[in-house]
Structure formats: C-alpha cells, structure tokens
Amino acid sequence: MKKGHLTRREFALGSASVALIGAVASPRSAKAAALGPDSKPAILGGPPVRTQPFPSWPTLESVDEGKVIDSLRQRKWCRLGANITTEFEGKWAQGLGAKFAIGVVNGTNALYAALNALEVGPGDEVLVPAYTFVATVNAVIQQFALPVFVDTDLKTQQMDTSKLESKITENTRCIMPVHMGGNVANLDEIKRIAAKHRLSIVEDACQAHYSEWGGKKAGSIGDVGCFSFQASKILPCGEGGAVVTSREDLYDRMHAFQNNGRDRLTGTRNGYLYQGSNLRMTEFQAALLLGQLTRFEKICKVREENAKHLTALLKQIGGVEPAGMYEQCTRNTYYVYLARYNPAAFKGLSRAAFLKAIAKEGIPMGAGYVPLNKEPFLEKTFRSRLFGRIYSDERLKRYREMNQCPANDQLAQEGLFLSQTLLIGTKQDVEQVAEAVARIQKHAVEIAKVS
Ligand SMILES: Cc1ncc(COP(=O)(O)O)c(C=O)c1O
Questions:
Q1: Cα–Cα distance list, 160 to 107, 116, 136, 165, 194 (Å)
Q2: How far apart, in whole angstroms, are the C-alpha atoms of residue 300 and residue 420?
Q3: Fewer CB within 10 Å: C terminus or N terminus of the chain?
Q4: Helix axes 283-317 and 62-74, enclosed angle (nearest 10)
C-alpha cells in the first residue's frame, strides 16, 4: 500500500495500533469523557476521546482450546483419513445454504481453485472491481487471464453494475464481484448480465461471511463462492479459506484440485481426475473454526447493532458518509465499516490530516484501498515473458484503454476504513468514534493550521 494508507495487516491489527496510540496519548480523567465535541482535540493538546484499546481480535475461549487440543491428540493432523475438516465443511455449507463446501489453506487459494474449476485461463478476461484487496486480481493473473476493472459505485463502494456490460468483450469468461467490507454487490444485476452473456460468477466473499442478498447468503448465489478465514476476518483461524458451490461438477473439480488431482470418490484407483495442487486445510484450522463458529452469530449481532448505531450518529454529524447498501442487501456483517470522507464538511481539512487527528483521539481509521487498476505491478506482469507469449501489444493496448475507473479514483481519495474491532464492544465505543469525528469537525480550521 502507498504511504498514508494502512497495509491490510496493519489495518487488521487495529486494536494493537490503538494500544500504541493510547500509550503515547496523555492520560485522561473520567470527567474528560464528558467533554464532548467542544473539547479541544487531542492533536491540539486536549485530552483524547479514548485511551483504552478497542477489543482485541481474534477472540480466544476455552472451546477453541479444547477443539484444537482434541485435534492435536487425534494425531491425524492432515485431513486425509480424518474428519474435522469434513465436519467444518458440512457446517459451513449448511450455514450458507449451499450444497458443498471445501476447506482450503486460505482465501487466495480458494479463488485459484474456483477459477481453475471454471477453466479460466490464458486469453480470457475476468471482470473484477477496482476497489478490492489485491488477492482478487492476483487470482486472475495466476491463471494467465486479464483482470478487467469495473468502476465503483460511490454510494455503496461495490462494483458499479451500470458500468459492467460495457466492459464485456468476446474474451470475457467470468464476473468476480467482491462483497466489500461485508456489504453485498448488486447480485441481481450481476446475475442478469452473466446470464445474458453466458458468463460464470465467482463471488469473492472473503470479507462477507453470512452477509445476505435477498435473504440468501453471500457466496452461495454465484457458481462458486470464496471465503477467507485469515486472522482479521470475522470468522478467523489464522490462515484458512473455503470454496462453496451447489454445482456438483465444480465441486468435483475443486475437490480434486485441492488434493493434487485425486478423485474425491475413487482416490487414484482410476488414475488422477485432473491436474491439481495441494490446498488442503489442516485439521487444526478446521478445529479452530468449529470453536469460533460457536459464538460467530452472537458477535455478528453485536457488530451489526453497533454499526447501525454508528451510522445513525455519523449521519447526524455529516462529512463521514457511511457506505449505503442496495435494497436487496438484507444483511451486512461489517468486516470493514466503509465510509467516505468529505473535506468540504470539515472546512477543507484533508483526509490525511483528519486521519492523523482522529488517531490522536484514540480512534484508528484507515484510508482504504489504492486503485488497483493503476498498480505498477500489473504493467510489469503484462510485460513479462509469460504474458508476452499470450497477449499481443495490440490486445494489451485495447485492454489498457478499458481500465479507466474515475469514480474509484475518487474513492481512493475519500475512502475510510473502520475495523470491525471498533464495532464488537459497547454502544459507548461507537459513540466515542462519533464524538471524535464531531470534535475534529468543530475544530477543523485550527487542526488544518497544525497539519
Ligand atoms: C476481498 C478479498 N479477497 C481475497 C482475500 C484473500 O484471502 P487470504 O488472505 O485468506 O488469502 C482477501 C483477504 O483479505 C480479501 O479481502
């Protein structure tokens, strides 16, 4: 990530950064808590709104320890011939309302498995949002296909489906929406366009565990859904992932792919089914996930309630605009609380200065993603020997011309990320977030002078 943007790992460590901020901030009396927005901002020498860290993540309970210890003692640490990963897969598929789930090593490899099963390969194009984590794009490149970037809907921060169809060419094979932050991309439109042009849909639901579209779970609606259980995710096990599908043909292929090409029913009795890799989830990962699942919904409810409360408070203040949801998004599980910063509501105070000031108040916020369509590593990739053998200069010229995403460029200037750890504590936690925003807004002119 660029300077001024938190890296994903730093962002995931939101609570750690708050602890750091807390350590450098001056101590604050209980009285100061009631000072409200008129009080002098911490960046100008006032007492910070918050000195306590937000809840840490991931959480650990005795149920997790019990399950992991059991998995150790079983001494079947690999899933072959064992049953913990299989148990998790059954629960995950059932919870999502899908026929099949396969545990894999991480979300990135879940995306590889999905694209491999759909035979997306050299010469193909995959439609991806410009606003996402880089793994979405890397998965396409890994197949030697071209990621074609679709601009962002500024209201929801999801792929703008009104700009999707114009990016379809004779080479397009697949649409890969990302349900950013736990919010859900416009799946009705994506499904309509995919059906019209005979394209597959891979839902990158790595940030959207149990989010819903029209009452159905995100990740269960396209041909394949991909999940990440990396440590920062709302269902974590350190590193982990899953693919989900209700199509048996894709299940067979992905199952073989994650297990070096072995047939899930006959093993190697009749030889190998397909070319494959080793993406197998370990029994420890699955054991931890089964532990985490016991309280997953409970934590989600707190997070969703707090997110609603925060949205109401921020709307009263103005200037930090929460991402909206499409009407059919019936559940947003808020892996990231997405918002946009409007400097005009802060008398021209820059986003960078706002982020610095709010960090001093003990509230960590990130600046969101950089525009991936402009990332220099893409050009390096396209000029590589391997890509040069697949794509002509003429083809790449056309490709580059398609990759303009002006709304996303704007979002990259205005985006704000609030970690889910801000939402899993108390109502007062999010009231402090709002209080810090209001305080900075009130003193924006003075803050600009010291920034
Ligand atoms: C949208 C998206 N896709 C893919 C991934 C990759 O998941 P993992 O880190 O488990 O490989 C992530 C992880 O943050 C993600 O946010």
A1: 23, 26, 16, 10, 14
A2: 10
A3: C
A4: 160
Q: What is the pLDDT of residues 352-373, one digit of tens each?
A: 999 999 999 999 999 999 999 9
Nearest to 136 by CA among 180, 189, 188: 180
Token pair for 415: 């985006």
Best substitution site from 105, 209, 228 to test ligand 1's pocket, by max atoms within 8 Å of Cβ?
228
Which residues does residue 263 pair with via DSSP β-bridges, in sequence order?
Answer: 267
pTM comes to 0.93
Instruction: Locate 393 and state its tokens.
Output: 């200069």
For each of the domains in the chain, give its residue range(s) and CATH number, in order of start. 8-58+295-368+411-450 (3.90.1150.10), 62-290 (3.40.640.10)
Phi, psi of 448 (to 5 degrees): -60, -35
Distance 131 CA to ligand 1 centre (A): 13
Share of the chain above pLDDT 90, in %: 91
Residue 338 pairs with which residues in a beta bridge?
A: 417
Give the rounded distance of the alpha carbon of 140 from its chain centre: 17
The pLDDT score that the predictor gives to residue 35 is 61
Both tokens assigned to 388: 């040069």
Residue 183 Cβ inside 6 Å of ligand 1? The answer reads no
Instruction: Please state, in angstroms and rounded to a whole number, the distance separating the CA atoms of residues 444 and 410.
Output: 22
* Ligand 1 pocket test target in 108, 232, 336 with most atoms within 8 Å of CB: 108
**Residue range 214-232, pLDDT digits in tens:** 999 999 999 999 999 999 9
Confidence of residue 36 (pLDDT cuts 50, 70, 90): confident
- Residue 69 token pair: 């210890």
* Range 120-141 average pLDDT: 98
Taking phi over 0 as left and psi of -120 to 50 as alpha, with beta for the rest, 62 belongs to: alpha
What is the Cα Rg of the chain in Å?
A: 23
Q: What is the DSSP letter of 145?
A: P
Q: Say if residues 352 and 223 touch (Cβ distance below 8 Å).
A: no
What's the pLDDT score for residue 29? 40
C-alpha–C-alpha distance, residues 341 and 324, integer Å: 14
DSSP 8-state assignment for residue 7: P
CA atoms within 13 A on the CB side of 275: 4
Q: How confident is the model at residue 28 (pLDDT cuts 50, 70, 90)?
A: very low
In residues, how long is the chain? Answer: 451
